[in-house]
Design brief:
alpha/beta; Rossmann fold; seven-stranded parallel beta sheet; 8 helices; 45% helix; binds NADP nicotinamide-adenine-dinucleotide phosphate
């Protein structure tokens, strides 16, 4: 079996990525933090796509928990390894800097940025030994442009993009590629409460994106055909910003 790990695979973009990787023949390890029912639904969709999945519940922002979960997976799968990791888990806690509480700063950075470190580092050694790996990081338009009300989120995603570029240069010689994706507005729980009718007027394609459209790009970056792309951050935002 070929294995892929998707963090935040229980809902939204992560779920669509799990299904896409399943159609590519991957056994998908679905990480989530709390939403068991939605994670089970993702497993069901993976099965319907013709593959198998496993749940791996842990908080990506907790270094010890992430390390323990990944090590226990590796112990239970002797001789096998996770060759694709999609660092997708993320939250937003928007507020103007003036009113942003410390916990909302640290929480957002903890999941998107520290989560990338916590999950990627324990997987990296085997990828390097096997001389093949794909690391795909879910950044955001906010990490490229900076958005008001999102100093925490922009910092997390901007840091993720910079670290993507740095790590790509560390591991390229060993056949491991590292890329980021920067979506604009995508229809998931994360954008609930935003005024879609108003916001879509600012988007040249005049609509929000679908999770499956992001997953298609993840699928390509995860494929062998994308083997000469590394250190990139690819925007997918309906023309909103480039
Ligand atoms: P979503 O629908 O809100 O789903 C978030 C996912 O992350 C859920 O599976 C959730 O698990 C998981 N998660 C949250 N905290 C976690 C933690 N501490 N440890 C492990 N998993 C955790 O979000 P989405 O819109 O699909 O976003 C996915 C990624 O795309 C995020 O990184 C987000 O920043 C990025 N993004 C989204 C948009 C957009 O417009 N939607 C735009 C740009 C970038 P539970 O189900 O267990 O809570």
């Amino acid at each position: 079996m070929k294995y892929a790990l998707v963090t935040g695979g229980s809902r939204g973009i992560g779920r669509a990525v799990c299904v896409k990787l399943a159609t590519m023949g991957y056994c998908v390890v679905v990480n989530y933090v709390s939403n068991e029912a939605e994670a089970q639904k993702t497993l069901q969709l993976i099965a319907e796509a013709g593959s198998i999945g496993e749940l791996l519940k842990f908080d990506v922002s907790d270094t010890a928990a992430a390390t323990a979960a990944i090590e226990s997976w590796q112990e239970a799968h002797q001789g096998e390894y996770i060759e694709v990791v999609v660092n997708n888990a993320g939250i937003r806690k928007d507020n103007l800097m003036l009113w942003m509480e410390p916990e909302d700063w640290y929480k957002v950075l903890g999941i998107s940025l520290n989560g990338f470190y916590n999950v990627t580092r324990p997987l990296l050694k085997t990828m390097l030994l096997k001389k093949y790996g794909r690391i795909i990081n879910m950044a955001s338009l906010s990490g490229l442009k900076g958005l008001p009300g999102q100093c925490n989120y922009s910092a997390a995603k901007g840091g993720l993009i910079a670290s993507t570029k740095a790590l790509a240069q560390e591991v390229g010689r060993k056949g491991v590629t590292v890329n980021a994706i920067a979506p604009g507005f995508v229809k998931t729980d994360m954008v609930d409460g935003l005024d879609e009718a108003e916001l879509k007027k600012t988007i040249p394609l005049n609509r929000f994106g679908e999770p499956e459209e992001i997953a298609a790009l993840v699928g390509f970056l995860a494929s062998k055909e994308a083997g000469y792309i590394t250190g990139e951050c690819i925007s997918i935002n309906g023309g909103l910003y480039s």
